[in-house]
Structure formats: structure tokens, C-alpha cells
Design goal:
By secondary structure, the chain is α+β, with helices and mostly antiparallel strands. Strands 1, 2, 3, 4, 5, 6 and 7 form a seven-stranded mixed beta sheet that branches. Strand 1 and strand 2 form a beta hairpin. It is globular. The two termini are 34 Å apart.
Length: 192
């Protein structure tokens, strides 16, 4: 620690930097997900570039080149559009059925009635447990403070989270299963 102080850094900054470094290592291991036997680690080629979906979701080069990016794009475009357009039926098509019971239409309208999501960006798509996928993304939500999470009553929140996605029973599409990874979201008031 003394060498850091010698460079003029207060001890509180050193502790903060050390904690952040540990958090990066932890997040990297968490977001990487378990290695599946027989699976090869995805590496984007030089031909892959970042893209923006028709629904306005940006994908980094690594996420854009993932083999399942098209299915993820359809899911996330529909999910964010359902919230921004207040379309409960579309929202239901993007989440697992257990979420329907948790958020029936009246409760969903109350929760998302003033929400507008924007600046969505998918940073990574990784394999998850049992053949699922994990998408690490960031976005901003604007809402009335009374509709924001009770512990963060702000008009604008910046979200950094992992969306677990599972294959539906029919095997034809993905659905968000946010119950699979509780506490996988970091949020803060927007820095505007």
C-alpha cells in the first residue's frame, strides 16, 4: 500500500481499484459460464463487425458473430419493443411461462406503464447451463420515479445485467428466464 501512497493515491482509491479489479476477475468467470464438454470457445473472425438490430439493439463484434446471435436478436428486439410499446402479449412471448404468473397483465402494466428502454447493447453471448445462453447487456430505462425500483426512485437508470435465455419446449425459439440467475443485475442512476 505504501508504494501507492508514494504515487499520491489515497488509500481509499487503492482499495476501490483493488475491489474493482477483483470484481472484473469475478465477473469474467461468472459471465463466461461453464465450459461444456465437446464445445469450442467462440472466437469472432476478422470479418465480423458490430451490428445494430432492426429493434435498435447494438451488438459488439463478439456478440454479433456468435452463432446464436440471430435468435438472440429476435428475442431481445421483441422484448424491448414489448416494454416500449406496452404490448403485454408480445412480452409474454419473450419470457418463460412462470413469469406470466409473477406478472399478470395488470401488475405488468403498473410495473412498466411509464418505462422506455433505450441504448441497449449486448456485449457478450455465452453458453449457460443445460444448453441455455447468457447475454450480458447494458441499457438505460426512463420511467416515472414512482415506477422505478423502490430502492432507486430515479427517472433514469443504467442497467448492467445478464439475461439467461432458455430454449422453449418446442425447441424453435428462446425465452428469457430471469429466475435462473437471481441478483444478476447491477443498476445505478444515469450519469447525465
Amino acid at each position: 500500500m505504501r508504494s501507492w501512497v508514494k504515487w499520491g493515491l489515497p488509500v481509499s482509491i487503492v482499495v476501490l481499484l483493488a475491489g474493482a479489479g477483483g470484481g472484473v476477475v469475478l465477473a469474467e468467470n461468472f459471465y463466461r459460464g461453464p465450459e461444456r464438454s465437446g464445445s469450442t470457445k467462440f472466437q469472432p473472425t476478422d470479418e465480423v463487425v458490430s451490428v445494430t438490430s432492426p429493434g435498435g439493439v447494438d451488438y459488439t463484434r463478439g456478440a454479433a458473430g456468435h452463432p446464436d446471435q440471430q435468435a438472440v436478436m429476435v428475442l431481445l428486439d421483441n422484448h424491448f419493443r414489448s416494454i416500449n410499446d406496452r404490448d403485454y402479449d408480445l412480452w409474454k412471448s419473450t419470457v418463460v411461462e412462470s413469469k406470466w404468473d409473477e406478472l399478470p397483465e395488470a401488475k405488468w402494466n403498473q410495473a412498466y406503464g411509464t418505462t422506455e428502454d433505450l441504448d441497449m447493447k449486448v456485449h457478450r453471448i455465452d453458453p449457460g447451463p443445460d444448453g441455455s445462453l447468457l447475454a450480458m447487456l447494458t441499457f438505460k430505462s426512463h420511467q416515472s420515479p414512482e415506477d422505478a425500483p423502490p430502492d432507486m426512485p430515479y427517472r433514469c437508470l443504467e442497467w448492467n445485467l445478464v439475461y439467461p435465455m432458455v430454449i422453449t419446449d418446442s425447441g424453435r425459439s428462446l425465452r428469457l428466464d430471469t429466475s435462473k440467475l437471481p441478483n444478476s443485475a447491477l443498476r445505478a442512476a444515469c450519469q447525465e
